[in-house]
Amino acid sequence: MGLFIYSLVFCAIFFALYQYSMIQNCFSGIRIGTIKNKHLTVGILIALAIYVFIRAFAFNTGTDYLLYYQYYISEVNGGTFWWAEDREVGFRFLVRLLASVSDAPQLFFFFSALIGMGSIILVSTKYSKASPFIVLSWILFMFNQSNNLYRQYLAFSTLLFAYYFFLCKKNKVFILLCIIACLFHKSALIAICVLSGIYLLRKIQINKWIFIALILFTTIGADMVFNTVLAQLGSYIDLIMDNLGKSYYADTMEDSVFDKGQMTYVIMMSDIIIVWYSDKVLKCNDNYRFLYYVMALSFILDPISRQEILMRMRFYTLNFMVIAYGLNLYLNRRIIFRKPLLTMAIAFHFAYYYIYINSNLFTYNPLILQF
Question: What is the rounded distance in angstroms from the CA atom of residue 258 to the CA atom of residue 304?
Fold first, then answer.
């Protein structure tokens, strides 16, 4: 039932975006910073409402959900909760603030969903007519990433807000939001360093064959790379986890690796096709090239981050990657069906990331709406 509802949701969002955003052309131009009509379209607002509703009222969506739920209840009751004692100060302040407004835990999940999708909608407005394609790409890859990783989710959503103000050349707000992102989750600091490094490379034209070769290497040699990293850094990982009071250790990390079968190579081929057919994004301008590089990096990291801990870091690149993915869809929209390989790659991404991933999630955590 959950998968059926999600399929209907995707169709509803798609047609809402199509009808109101693509046909009416509420936005004009595709250059950064040239928006002439800043109001959001009805289709995008419908998509936001559907997403926020499901995320706010979906109950027990994964392993960590009940921890966030119980922590919120403890704040409402004025008590303490062991799990939250060493969590980031920004996250604890947010929960305390929301708990003072309402005793319903759904408010926290509502807020998380609102800034999650709201951040990509705001950023997408900087790309005018490509906006609905970017939002649709975010839904395709990120619809369920808020199931457990709420602190990371808040962090990388805040970084998207920061990126928006960076594009607006409001550097003080940009720096402030980067700091706030780190207060939601410390991993945001690593993401800021990585994304800043990629941004500095935006003026350098890197041949796409290099990215394709790296995708091939990390996919074919995923086990070798993963085992080498664990062998060389395992003791340091254990030491860091001990100091942080975490229960993740190098010798158990391999147990949580997923998708190691033949599907890995199908994903590899689809990612290579997207990289190959994204020339219009790569060659458009420096800012677009930055997003292309982030997308390529996300594809490169994918095979070696299919593990419970490592995948959390990839979400930062994934959240930016959807912008380039959406731009690619927009720039190739008139010829997409003339390129069968590109069509098949996009269809596979929908089948795998939206249908298959969701069906796996519902196997362990059926969709239950609690009002």
Answer: 10
Structure tokens at 186: 């410390």
Split at pLDDT 50, 70, 90, the class of 145 is low
**pLDDT, tens digit (0-9, with 9 covering 90-100), for 348-365:** 988 888 777 777 776 766
Could you report the per-residue pLDDT of 110-127, keeping only the tens digit for each? 999 899 889 998 898 888
How far does CA 67 lie from the centroid of its chain?
22
Q: What is the DSSP string of 57-123?
A: HB---STTHHHHHHHHHHHHTT---GGGTTS-HHHHHHHHHHHHH-S-THHHHHHHHHHHHHHHHHH
Q: How confident is the model at residue 335 (pLDDT cuts 50, 70, 90)?
A: confident
What is the DSSP-derived secondary structure letter of residue 204?
A: S
Q: Report CA-CA distances (Å) from 308 to 129, 183, 249, 256, 266.
A: 36, 22, 12, 6, 21
Nearest to 346 by CA among 325, 331, 327, 360: 325
Beta carbons of 346 and 136 less than 8 angstroms apart: no
The candidate with the shortest Cα–Cα distance to 49, out of 113, 130, 107, is 113
DSSP per residue, 13-41: HHHHHIIIIIIS--S---STT--S--SPP
* 307 three-state secondary structure: strand
The one-letter amino acid at 148: N
**pTM for this model (two decimals):** 0.83
- Burial (Cβ within 10 Å: 0-12, 13-18, ≥19) of residue 161: buried
